[in-house]
Structures are given as C-alpha cells and as structure tokens.
C-alpha cells in the first residue's frame, strides 16, 4: 500500500499566522506530546514574546506549513549545542495525514546543512516515526523539565547525517 504524498507549502511566517499557531498551542494533547512548551500556553503575551524572539533571530529559519490554503503548523531550524536542530508543530486536526512528513521533507530540501538534529520526547511515537522515515537515528538521550507535563521527561536526540 502506497501512501499519497500530500501537497504542503512552506512559506515565510506572516503576522496573521501567529494567531493560528497560538490556537494550535491551546490543545492539551498537543502540548503533552510536545512536552517542552510554555508554562501557561494560554498566555498570549509570553507566546508573542517567544515568537518575536524567533522571528528576529537571524540564526533561525522558520516556515509556516500550509495545506489546502490553511495554516496547519510551523517548522524551524535553530542552532543548539553546535548543531542545527529541527523542530515542528502541526495542528492536531492534521495529525496522521502525512502533512508533517511532507512538510519536513520540503524543509530538509531547503535546509541542507548536515548533520542536523532533532529532539523528541521518548513517548511521542508520531514525531519519532516522521524523523526515522527521513533517516534520523537516535544518537543520545537527555532529560529535562517539561512544563506541559510538570515533570522531568526523557527525550531522544536524533540526527540525520
């Protein structure tokens, strides 16, 4: 069985996209899967400050993910511990449809620096599968306090060589 490749568009973030990103961040299950989120995801001031820092940082490349004309998420790369690190967030309504996979594929064609890393909480199987299918392998583990879970969690450090 072959899976249909979905068409997504990656484009620079526009200010109106932030409203959609903020809405996506309100889903409790999505926050649990991401784990490392704001202490209070409903605090728009903290959200706007965080995104302002991202959008002004010349070392961060960030794109809006669009599917069928709708803003469905974001993908970005930022420097972390000497490596570029990819991170993504997709609206829960679009999970399991191949949209994140298509977006990551498109982003990895744009961002060609290797190795590139990603971090994913060990129980976030969906994101692990997206990364593994792109060729990422686990190269380490880390622990950190996750606001969304109010606990220390383990995460895999994954790398695409």
Automatic annotation (TrEMBL):
Gene3D superfamilies: 3.40.630.30. Keywords: Acyltransferase, Transferase. The keyword GTP-binding does not apply. It is an enzyme of class 2 (transferase). GO terms for molecular function: acyltransferase activity. Pfam families: Acetyltransf_3. Residues 8-161 form the N-acetyltransferase domain. Its EC number is 2.3.-.-. This is GNAT family N-acetyltransferase. It comes from Arthrobacter halodurans.
């Amino acid at each position: 069985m072959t899976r249909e490749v979905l068409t997504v568009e990656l484009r620079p973030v526009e200010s109106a996209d932030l409203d959609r990103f903020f809405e996506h961040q309100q889903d409790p299950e999505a926050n649990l899967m991401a784990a490392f989120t704001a202490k209070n995801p409903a605090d728009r001031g903290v959200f706007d400050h965080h995104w302002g820092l991202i959008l002004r940082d010349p070392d961060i490349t960030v794109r809006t993910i669009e599917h069928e004309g709708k803003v469905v998420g974001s993908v970005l790369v930022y420097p972390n511990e000497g490596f570029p690190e990819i991170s993504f967030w997709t609206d829960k309504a679009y999970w399991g449809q191949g949209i994140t996979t298509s977006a990551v594929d498109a982003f990895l064609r744009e961002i060609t620096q290797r190795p590139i890393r990603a971090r994913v909480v060990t129980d976030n199987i969906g994101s692990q599968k997206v990364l593994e299918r792109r060729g990422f392998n686990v190269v380490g583990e880390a622990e950190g306090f996750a606001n969304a879970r109010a606990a220390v969690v383990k995460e895999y450090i994954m790398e695409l060589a």
